[in-house]
Amino acid sequence: MSGFAMRLKVRHRVGAMVLEVALEVGARPVALIGPNGAGKSTLLKIIAGGVRPRNATIEAGGKCWVDSSAGDFLEPARRRVGYVPQGPSLFEHLRVWENVAFGLEGSREEKRAAALGWLKRWGAEGLSERRVGALSGGEAQRVTLVRALAASPQLLLLDEPLSALDAIARRQLRGQLAQTIEALGLPTIIVTHDWRDVAALGAEVVAMEEGRVVQRGELQALSETPASAFIAEFSGV
Question: What range defines the domain where residue 218 resides?
Answer without folding.
Answer: 6-80+154-234
